[in-house]
Design a protein that fits this description.
Layout: H1 19-35, H2 37-46, H3 63-77, H4 81-90, H5 94-131, H6 145-192, E1 198-200, E2 207-209, H7 213-230
Antiparallel strand pairs: 1-2
Pfam families: PRP21_like_P, Surp
GO biological process, one term: regulation of alternative mRNA splicing, via spliceosome
Subcellular location: Nucleus
């Protein structure tokens, strides 16, 4: 695609209006460019009920055309220095003018071809849609997504319940282990109250000092043996 040419400062698209309306808008734009924004503000307040000057309001469809004319006239009456230098450089230079004109012509031609191709593609697509016989299509099955969504919600709920149950069991097991550890610590602390560590006897379930545990176990075993022999 050829490069986009410089925008023409004075290229304005005229809307579909009468010749009289066009002359009024142009004349008002010329006075606005010469006298400034205060002129158009005063005119809009004075003619606010006059439909002829309705284009002075920003919500009117002809206001963009009026604003572009004001800008173009303002550039003609008060041109910038860089624009004057550009005109002096290109004025009378045939090569630059021909090159610029050719670049603009190539660009507009390419844009026109793209626009034409898009219109043809759109028309071809519309013709294709019209050629389809929708009676040839048959409904094979109707899917009710509400049942599917409800089933999914139930599965998610059951999974959450199962997960919560597993977590509760793990928590209870952990609490029981902690309780057993605390009981063991309590038993040891009871022995420490008398200055010596004690341990529970597995036979008589009494707290026995560790230093006497061997002797105590022998006595308990002997006692149990004697009782069994007497029987």
């Amino acid at each position: 695609m050829p490069p986009r040419p410089i925008k023409n400062r004075f290229e304005i698209h005229r809307p579909y209006i009468t010749q009289e309306e066009d002359e009024i808008i142009k004349l008002t734009a010329q006075y606005t460019a010469r006298n400034g924004s205060n002129f158009v503000k005063t005119l809009a307040e004075r003619e606010q009920k006059n439909p002829t000057f309705a284009f002075l309001h920003k919500n009117h469809p002809n206001y963009p055309y009026f604003a572009q004319l004001c800008e173009s006239y303002n550039q003609c009456l008060h041109p910038k220095q860089q624009y004057i230098q550009f005109l002096n450089k290109t004025m009378g230079n045939t090569q630059i003018l021909i090159k610029y004109s050719k670049m603009r012509a190539d660009y507009e031609k390419e844009i026109e071809e793209i626009k034409k191709k898009n219109e043809e593609d759109k028309k071809r697509e519309e013709e294709l849609n019209l050629s389809i016989n929708w009676n040839d299509f048959v409904v094979v099955e109707t899917i009710d997504f509400n049942d599917f969504i409800e089933t999914e919600h139930q599965n998610i709920f059951l999974d959450e319940m199962e997960q919560n149950t597993e977590e509760e069991i793990k928590q209870e097991t952990k609490e029981e282990e902690n309780q057993n550890d605390n009981d063991e610590i309590t038993k040891i602390k009871k022995g420490n109250q008398y200055g010596e560590v004690k341990q529970e006897c597995p036979l008589c379930h009494r707290l026995i000092p560790l230093s006497e545990m061997d002797k105590h176990m022998k006595i308990e075993l002997s006692s149990k043996t004697m009782k069994s022999q007497q029987k």
